[in-house]
Amino acid sequence: MSLSRLSRLALGCAALALTPLAANAQDKTDVKFSVDWAWQAMHGPFLIALEKGYYADEGLNVTIDRGFGSGDTISKVASGAYDIGFAEGTGLLKFNAENPEDAVITVLVINDKSPTGVISLKENGITKPSDLPGKKISATQNAATVLAWPVFAGLNDLDPESIEYVFVEPNLRDAMVIQGRADATFGFSTTTVLNMVQAGIDRDDVTYFTLAQYGLEPYSSGLIVKASYAEENPDVLKGFIAATVKGLQEMLEDPAEGLALLKEREPLVDIDLEADRWELAKELSILTPSVAERGISNVDQARFETSAGQIANAFGMEIEPVMSDYYDGSFLPPLEDRQISDAVKASMK
């Protein structure tokens, strides 16, 4: 056989060998995914699913971008700029009412309870709702927590007018407490507690409680999609959710890998701080008694609609929310694949 014929044969074999790989790459569906904020420990499960090929195994070519707030992520998903997002689910109540043609739904709940709460310093003696009357609270005008306060106050037999607000920009809320110009602040405990630690406050000197611990229990952050996208791409969603659940379960088992991937994605993050943030998020929001007992995203309709009604009332919306308008669990993997392991349950505080 001539050398030229051998060369052509070799090239042909190489082309055949490469064809399945090329076809496999071309067969993957592109998915643009945005998280809710700058890179933090909460995003570890997604990075694990990406790095370990769980999305790829589902036939998905996923790109992940940082976010600029849940409201921004919801708007970008609704506009089609992103296919899937990670955002605070209570924001859908107001958004969908104002944008019925671009309605967005949650398809996987990750934060079973909201970490939103009241954060203070030990010296101020604020550890429960009844400690709030007569106190100054730093907050942002028209923030969700400010709007929800009258509902929360009513649930705890408090006068909604019994606190004094000190309204400032979001980036100044924590500093007002640290400087003694406010007694406490409203915010995400998983963010504010660690912000105070980063500012030099000893962790043991920071106190907090969440609204969920005292009666206001909306389901919180999870995967969101435009309703029309869910209808048109059910297999994509099923694959993305299944892969995400795997990443979440591994992060719950051992966060080290997710935190290392976070550091690779954003070298400026403080790994020790983010490890503390993950433990706080796990305690307050992700690994709740309900999740330990019922599994990930096993949403209770009565709780959903009751808490959504409370939030809608806080927003001044005259509606009675129906769960199916905001949450669709039909894309979830089987319940047995969403159960929490005994080892993770044993780690609960």
What can you see in these coordinates?
This protein has 349 residues and is an alpha/beta fold. It has two domains: 22-112 and 218-346, Periplasmic binding protein-like II (D-Maltodextrin-Binding Protein, domain 2), CATH 3.40.190.10; 116-214, 3-Layer(aba) Sandwich (D-Maltodextrin-Binding Protein, domain 2). Helices cover 46% and strands 15% of the residues. The strands form two sheets. A five-stranded mixed beta sheet has the order 2-1-3-10-4, sandwiched between helices. The protein has a five-stranded mixed beta sheet with strand order 7-6-8-5-9. Helix 6 (144-155) links the parallel strand 6 and strand 7. Helix 8 packs antiparallel against helix 12 (271-286). The model is unreliable at 1-23 (pLDDT under 50).
At the fourth level of CATH, the homologous superfamily of the largest domain is Periplasmic binding protein-like II
What CATH calls the topology of the largest domain is D-Maltodextrin-Binding Protein, domain 2
Q: How many distinct folded domains?
A: 2
In the CATH hierarchy, what is the architecture of the largest domain at level 2? 3-Layer(aba) Sandwich
Strand content: 15-25%
Q: Tell me the helix content.
A: 40-55%
Low-pLDDT residue intervals, each spanning 5 or more residues? 1-23
Order of strands in the sheet with most strands:
2-1-3-10-4
For the record, give the distance between the C-alpha atoms at the N and C termini, rounded to a whole number.
Answer: 74 Å
Please state the structural category.
alpha/beta
- Biggest pleated-sheet summary: 5 strands, mixed
How many separate helices?
A: 15
Estimated radius of gyration: 23 Å
Morphology:
globular
Number of strands: 10
CATH uppermost class of the largest domain? Alpha Beta
Q: What letter string, H or E per element, gives the SSE order? A: HEHHEHEHEEEHEHEHEEHHHHHHH
What's the rounded overall pLDDT mean?
Answer: 92
